[in-house]
Amino acid sequence: MAMKAKKINKMLDEAIPLRHPLKLNEAMRYSLLAGGKRVRPILCIASCELVGGDESLAMPIACAIEMIHTASLIHDDLPCMDNDDLRRGKPTNHKVFGESTAVLAGDAFLSFAFEHIACNTNNVSPDRLVRIFAELSSVIGSKGLVAGQFVDIESEGKAVSLKELEYIHVHKTAKLLEACVVCGVIIGGGNDNDIEKVRIYARFIGLLFQVVDDILDVTKSSVELGKTAGKDLVSNKATYPKVMGIDEAKNFAYHLMNQVVQQLACFDTAKAAPLYHLAYCIANRQN
Amino acid sequence: MAMKAKKINKMLDEAIPLRHPLKLNEAMRYSLLAGGKRVRPILCIASCELVGGDESLAMPIACAIEMIHTASLIHDDLPCMDNDDLRRGKPTNHKVFGESTAVLAGDAFLSFAFEHIACNTNNVSPDRLVRIFAELSSVIGSKGLVAGQFVDIESEGKAVSLKELEYIHVHKTAKLLEACVVCGVIIGGGNDNDIEKVRIYARFIGLLFQVVDDILDVTKSSVELGKTAGKDLVSNKATYPKVMGIDEAKNFAYHLMNQVVQQLACFDTAKAAPLYHLAYCIANRQN
């Protein structure tokens, strides 16, 4: 996984050269290359390989998904949104480059992701690419990431039901993870059955990811997390520990991990190993 | 043209239904259906018809381009950008729905545009669609719209050369207009030669559009324009009248209109008529 992440970092680095306008591209590079865990691109590549596709086939899509994720982080951190000062242990994009540049860097990523796929995916029939565009674009906007962030912000300071909480996490986190595996399988040449199987896998790890994130927010310090800890509590934001209590949230994470293992049982064990491993890493991460 | 605009308005209305989360979709509809002139979608459809394609083929792309344009307007108006209160005679998006919703509505449009094309364009070979995705995505990000807005904001309060001024307008305005005609010709089944011809046409009307916009800003009132007049002057922003004087700017507009007429001379006159007419409308608009 560390090797995959290194390759992905290299490709991301090359994708955004330092061209004119310099400060805009610096701002994009600052957040894109801030050392995330690259869970999403690794997931995309692993899903491509799961159905026999080569890593290189999935790489442009994997990088594009990390760009989309980065765009959502930059915009989520804005003063008018979550107003966050720290991200991945560094000052947030608008703290370094100013608010207008942060808005524009996010906007640029949202379109560059599609450009990167359209211009760098070779040796793939165009109908597969069109399916990928449909899948990926649908998880970003008002039926995906944006909807999740919108409901999240609207829910601040209000009593939030478990149903609303799940809506937020499905849209903010799970749908993009689902797109990672689905796009990986499509580009790798998988069939509709393969797609359905990885969709279910992704839904479980999506939930798992968020539950663990929420638990870390209340159990770790800012230094350990590399971002402002305890912030969800202060802002009265919906979290699993808040709704169900910290012990029940930990039980829920354990239950989800068991479900993930069951979902992968029907795949070739060797090829599914990276997807097992990823779920394990998500469940056991410390920041 | 009025008939085309009416059809486009109907399709845009249907494209964004009032679903959950309601306020986000209301915010999107507010700006999308605020009664713009629909120059871009009309240009896209006219270019499709120029090469013998049917209006219905180009409609999803035409609508998508209007969504991208709307996203850029919403974000340009934000307090951290141009901080504008009026747009098309109505309060700007963030004035009505708040800043965070305005950021998210813009983000949603940037991805929904691609979703709308991928899911609604029928009876077209997927390789044409991939070309359209490449063309369209490249004019939005850090080589297009976003770059133009970035340099525009950075140049405020500074002395701006004609070269910088043209960079801003090419990126903020001309490139998207160029994408309108190029995508229209691609989806309509035009060849590379057709594409090159309409590219040049689009570059001239792109410049024309901005020169006229700048002239209107200093010669018309806010009520006449439906947006805050004289704002470019107050904010010390780069404009053609500022750099070359109002009379020379008017001469430049006249020269550009002549160039447009020359570019279209090589096309079938009847089929090129809507493109002539559009250029004429751009040159002679009063708001």
3D architecture notes:
The structure is a homodimer of 287-residue chains. The first copy, chain A, is 74% helix and 1% strand. By secondary structure, chain A is an all-alpha fold. Chain A has one domain: Farnesyl Diphosphate Synthase (Orthogonal Bundle), CATH 1.10.600. A two-stranded antiparallel sheet of chain A has the order 1-2. In chain A, a hairpin with a 2-residue loop joins strand 1 and strand 2. The longest helix of chain A is centred in the C-terminal third of the chain and has 28 residues. Chain A is globular, with a radius of gyration of 18 Å. Chains A, B: It comes from Gossypium hirsutum (Upland cotton). Chains A, B: InterPro entries: Isoprenoid_synthase_dom_sf, Polyprenyl_synt, Polyprenyl_synt_CS, Prenyl_diphosphate_synthase. Chains A, B: Its cofactor is Mg(2+). Chains A, B: It holds the Pfam family polyprenyl_synt.
Instruction: Assign a percent range to the helix content of chain A.
Output: over 70%
CATH topology grouping of chain A: Farnesyl Diphosphate Synthase
The multimeric state of the shown protein is homodimer
The SSE string of chain A, one letter per element, is HHHHEEHHHHHHHHHHH
Number of helices of chain A: 15
CATH architecture title of chain A: Orthogonal Bundle
Reported for the largest beta sheet of chain A, the result is:
2 strands, antiparallel
Distance between the termini of chain A: 17 Å
Per CATH, the class of chain A reads Mainly Alpha
Contiguous low-pLDDT stretches of chain A (5 residues minimum) are none
Q: Please report the total strand number of chain A as a whole number.
A: 2
What general outline of chain A do the C-alpha atoms trace? globular
CATH superfamily of chain A: Farnesyl Diphosphate Synthase
User: Largest interface by residue count?
Assistant: A-B, 52 and 52 residues
Percent in strands of chain A: under 5%
Strand order of the largest sheet of chain A: 1-2
Mean pLDDT of chain A: 91
